[in-house]
Amino acid sequence: MKAAEILSRASALFLDFDGPVCSVFAGIPASTVADQLRGVLADNGHTDLPDAVATTEDPFDIFHYAALLGDDEARYVEAAFTAHEVEAISSATPTNGGHQLIETWTESGRPLAIVSNNSALAISAYLDLYDLHALIDLVSARTGPDAALLKPSPHFLNQAMSALDVAFNESVLLGDSTSDIEAAHAAGVRSVGYANKPGKRTRLTAAGADAITEALTGLATVG
Does 140 have pLDDT greater than 80? Predict the structure, then answer.
């Protein structure tokens, strides 16, 4: 089944944020944020990091590692991470077709939620910046230091379905990472993989996405 067909049959749409809606770290590279989060750990005496953590460019890797160290470390790193995400919003670039998809979906009268590992504060800042709040029924996203709630956990999806009172078999998640697809499987939700970079089509297909799209512009008319 093609992505457009899956969306046309769905009663509710869940959008990942970083990717389908915008590129959060377009102006402030994720690698820079990862370095800054390593600095937070160093300030708290954690300088001897595993190689994978010491070299990763993904700030989420640092956050997950901090959660293993203890509650305090998780809180410090998550708070710094949120601050950097909010700062990055001013230079985030909208995804081509993303806003249009939000607009046309909302016009169809069906509920739409953002379901994301990014901080709810950063997402709210973006919605304010582009005057999109009225088009989004719900934001189900990171609000604290509990890394276990992040996708691939189905927590945010389950939270969104409960709040919007929609059934899992009537919903679809559109995301650009394997963790999105895994979370959708765990929640019983159909998934559309957004293959916006080389290699993602293969990875998202292998993760079990129900359909793949390389552009959102073709989905922006689904209503």
Answer: yes
- The torsion of the CA quartet 24, 56, 14, 188, rounded to 10 degrees, works out to 180
Residue positions counted in the chain: 223
Alpha carbon separation from 138 to 15, 24, 124, 126, 162 (Å, rounded): 11, 19, 11, 14, 11
Spatial distance between the Cα atoms of 20 and 115, rounded to a whole number of angstroms: 11
Q: Would you tell me how many other CB atoms lie within 10 Å of the CB of residue 167?
A: 11
Q: What is the pLDDT of residues 194-206, one digit of tens each?
A: 999 999 999 999 9
- Structure confidence by residue, pLDDT tens digits, 11-60: 999 999 999 999 999 999 999 999 999 999 999 999 999 999 999 999 99
Q: Could you write out the DSSP letters of every residue in 131-156?
A: T-GGG-SEEEEE-SS-GGGSTTSSHH
- Cα–Cα nearest to 38, from 24, 26, 50, 20: 50
pTM over 0.70: yes
- Residue 212 CA to residue 177 CA, distance in Å, equals 11
Whole-angstrom CA distances from 130 to 20, 62, 94, 165, 199 are: 15, 30, 9, 27, 30
40-59: buried (b, 16+ CB within 10 Å) or exposed (e) per residue? bbeeeebeeeeeebeebeeb
194/204 Cα distance (integer angstroms): 8
